[in-house]
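Bench notes, afternoon.
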Amino acid sequence: MRKFFTLFVEYGTLLLFVLYCSIAFLFIRLEQDDVQGTLHNGGLEFSAAINEQLMQFSSLFTLKRENERLMRVNTDLLSRVLTLETSALDERSRKKILADTTFNASGFIMARVVDRKFSDRENMLVIDAGWRKGVKKDMTVLVPEGLVGRVTAVSENYARVMPVIHPDFKVIAVADSCGSMGILSWSGGREFIAQIEHIPISSRIKLNERLVTSDFSTFSIRGIPVGRVVRMKPDNLFYDVDVRLAVDFSNLTLVLVAPLKINQEKISIMGDETPTINKKSH
């Protein structure tokens, strides 16, 4: 023990130096290990972050392509649904017309309204039937509910229709029960109200009287409903009459085109022309 202390006293400084160096070397070693570990861990985290960003960008491109694909699919489905709904609507309208037992649609041309122009003055319809299907100018256009208008222009596959709610449209109408006649026209404004002129105040026409086309018309077949009287006001020699039209012009899909009414003998005699008459006995 004494020798140990003696040795420690003699070489203490050297031993302390060695001890300090060992401790310093240990700290340096530990410090280097931490730096390497930190660099290694930092590198892993950076690599992971880069990979994550790349995966996000890749998923964005993939998601964009998927969204575009789904948009094309949805557009195709929407087109098919709209086509089926339109076909179903047309079929329901067609069945409704054919099922109306009060109206015989045989011999008439069925057409669909494909365009329209509505305003408080100028109104017009376009139907998808032209001269290829037998439509001619001045043919009557109607639905089972009543008179729609008259064909004014015809192309191969389409026809333009002047509806009752046009300032230039006129037709002779007759009261269903009393037989009073007048000229039906539309003066603008509300699309469901027209006026009838030249009904004398001596007439027995009443409110809610039904009006139909007469045989006096040069284009329309007779008996087509026109509307009902909703207002009457006497004015000198004639009534001022408002008629609620039979047709809802805001809800037209399918219409019928009646065969052209041509009576050349009647037209000739009205124009003071001498008609050609078959002189054979009947």
